[in-house]
Amino acid sequence: MTSKSTEQSRKKLSKITKALFNRNVHMQQCPMCDESEFSVNTAPIYNLSKSETPIGNEYKKCVPSALITCENCGLMLQYSLEVLEIDLDEEESQ
Hints:
This protein has helices at about 5-20, 90, and strands spanning about 40-45, 55, 60, 60-70, 75-80. The chain is α+β, with helices and mostly antiparallel strands.
């Protein structure tokens, strides 16, 4: 990974963590195994049903998401980047 992409990853992580914290989401312990090590990633989550997924007033087949993963048991929590008001495309164009 280049230093530029590493820096972009850090900025994404910081932005997601801050948005979750501002909404009172504090992951101190995993609700399944009580461990406290998490990773944060981004991914497009595709709707597997035949209908589209409602986000706000729109329907989309793909939901840009932040994934919080417990490093011990693998529990994954998914957060919509649109609800968190995070536009990762905007960051990459800068």
